Amino acid sequence: MRRRGSQHVEAQTSFAVLSIEGAAEVYGAIPITAETAATGHPFRRGSPLTSAFLAFDPRAMVLVVSWAFLSIAGGRQMFGESLDSVSYFRYFNNLNSNPDFGASRFEIGYQAFAWVCKFVLGLDYNAFLLATIAISLGLKFTLIWRYMSMPVIGALAYVLTFYFLHEYTQFRAALGIGLVMWGVHKFVEGKWRAALVWYALALLFHYSTIIVIAIAVVARFVRSPKSIGILGVVVAAAIFVFTFFGDVLLSFALRFNPLTEVYLYDRTVDNANLLSVPNLLMMAASLYAVVVGFLVRSDYHRTFLFLGLASFVGLALFVTTVTLALRIREVLFIGFMFAFLRSPPTPRDFPLVVLTLMAGAYTTWRGLGTLFEF
């Protein structure tokens, strides 16, 4: 165990700024090297909770304390009222003991979860909100703990980039993304049955996660110039279908939920900006990652890089349905974080860490500016 722990420290001492990640390995961990990172298997077992209280790992303790504080802060809306809080509050308060899952555009999984929390567990809205945030953030922090070489840096990147957008505002999407990311990780590991279960759960909480599933499947088989050419044809066909048959697809969607049109063409949503600062930073990071060989480094790196890159495609294609474009970006953008923070830090990969944190810092600054109007 001492020799394995020393390997972990040696793999991470390239940068003093990341020295907090050099703590001793926890029980059940494997050496963190470029070779083990390429396998796609978890570096650590268990969760931050078990590692904090059973192995007394300081990194796990940081994640647990952060998780608890951010869950409470979100449940109590301590940073100000989020943009979507009113609609979720009204939905929860209007629930009655005889569930009617067809009366709302919310997915059936989320509606069932809300109904159980209110009428079975007896939770009020704030307690329900806290439980929602704790579950979604816990799903992601556990993934970060297991699969990232630098869990503290990974958690920081996630909070900076996504906390205010997902956990603090878009509660259904937050749950769906947490569930589908578990599915993608199991899919990369080759655990098909587990992946299908996670995928099904994700779709029950947010339909947009189908996009993540589709891109993950595509990335799994795109490994050669021929397959890239085929992918180009498929993308071109999809663009053609959406451009000329978009109204037909919308009519089909309305059969399942008449509120779909209001959602997709919500004119109160700001325009999707492909050239925003976070997007430009991650474009630069993506170009650098391709140059240094991320597409051939491993299935794990290629899959999550594809997810991130697909977020830009969605923004560029669906400019007339702003809500859809933004939703595609939100569910896929997290792929960059898992791709860039998977491997142990080396001088070659260090720019990716810096660009990821810079994009997150700017996102948080803008998010707080929106909440507090500065």
What does this structure look like?
By secondary structure, this protein is mainly alpha-helical. It has one domain. Helix content is 70%, strand content 0%. It is globular, with a radius of gyration of 21 Å. It starts with a helix and ends with a helix. The relative contact order is 0.12. Residues 1-27 have low confidence and may be disordered.
Summarize this, please?
With 374 residues, the chain is mainly α.
Query: Overall 3D geometry?
Result: globular
Number of strands: 0
Task: Give the helix proportion (percent range).
Answer: over 70%
Number of spatially distinct domains:
1
Helix and strand string, N-terminal first? HHHHHHHHHHHHHHHHHHH
Structural class: mainly alpha
Global mean pLDDT: 82
Distance between the termini: 51 Å
Strand content: under 5%
Radius of gyration: 21 Å
The major sheet is characterized as: none
Low-pLDDT segments: 1-27
SSE diagram, text form:
Blueprint (H helix, E strand, L loop, with lengths): L1 H11 L21 H6 L8 H7 L3 H18 L9 H10 L13 H13 L4 H23 L3 H13 L7 H19 L2 H14 L3 H13 L3 H32 L3 H5 L12 H15 L2 H4 L1 H19 L4 H11 L1 H7 L9 H23 L2
Helix pairs in contact: 3-4, 4-7, 4-8, 6-10, 7-8, 7-9, 8-19, 9-10, 9-11, 11-16, 14-19, 16-17, 16-18
Descriptors:
374 residues; mainly alpha; 70% helix; single chain; disordered N terminus
